[in-house]
From TrEMBL:
The keyword Transferase applies. Gene3D superfamilies: 3.40.50.880. This is Glutamine amidotransferase. InterPro entries: ChyE-like (IPR044992), Class_I_gatase-like (IPR029062), GATASE (IPR017926). The lineage of its organism: Bacteria, Pseudomonadati, Pseudomonadota, Alphaproteobacteria, Rhodobacterales.
Length: 231
């Protein structure tokens, strides 16, 4: 199964050399599930020609806000709506989670409660899962088609499903602890409050449930779907 990675941001240069860029992280996360990958750097305006060019689409995180004025955001939203109409499955992570919601009628904002950083617990329909987080923006208003499947006190809309068309997660299952530590040392200084970073550092090393989310992403992509006409 061919998964197209829509890369919406770039990992910091001083971290990507050792730990890889975002597509590398997702390839590691989903290793063993039988996928092949093709990357499109949509942040640099490299878009697929058609929503059917891959069997599914994975939208990465980004340092950009979904509500900001960047050239790649309007065509990405249009692509999301076409893929949704054609029932081509999409998975969105962090910014990907947010931009799918925004494209389908939801609202994304800079959250007044501040940042969520490092190992964070989420209630996935009664199951507590711990994943690395790195975000201030949140989905604050849901599209009509979205159903909440994970939340916590800080992030009410932490994971969403849109029937068999999209599965999105605010946290970063692809981020390992060393990458979060690197983000705190590079992008965090002067941006994320020191007390938040200290609390995150104290939790680094907590057992993460990234393999569970990896399985859920794989199961979502592989779910049998009815054939739909090309848009």
């Amino acid at each position: 199964m061919l998964i197209g990675i829509l890369q919406t941001g770039l990992a910091p240069d001083n971290l990507s050399g050792e730990m890889g860029d975002y597509p590398d992280m997702f390839a590691r996360l989903l290793d063993g599930h039988g996928f092949t990958f093709r990357t499109y750097r949509v942040v640099d305006m490299e878009f697929p020609a058609d929503v059917q060019d891959c069997d599914g689409w994975l939208l990465t995180g980004s340092r950009h806000g979904a509500y900001e004025d960047h050239p790649f955001i309007p065509p990405l939203e249009a692509f999301i709506r076409r893929a949704y109409a054609a029932h081509v499955p999409m998975v969105g992570i962090c910014f990907g989670h947010q931009i799918i919601a925004q494209a389908l009628g939801g609202k994304v904002e800079k959250y007044k409660g501040g940042w969520s950083v490092g190992p964070t617990d989420y209630d996935f329909d009664g199951e507590t899962l711990t994943l690395n987080a790195w975000h201030q923006d949140q989905v604050t208003e849901l599209p009509d088609s979205a159903t909440v499947i994970a939340r916590n006190d800080f992030c009410e809309n932490a994971a969403l499903v849109y029937d068999d068309r999209a599965f999105t997660v605010q946290a970063h299952p692809e981020f390992r602890d060393e990458f979060v530590d690197g983000l705190m040392r590079t992008r965090g200084k002067g941006v994320v409050p020191e007390d938040r970073m200290e609390a995150a550092t104290a939790r680094l090393g907590t057992k993460l449930d990234a393999p569970t989310i990896s399985d859920r992403i794989a199961d979502f992509f592989k779910r049998p779907r009815a054939q739909h006409p090309r848009e």
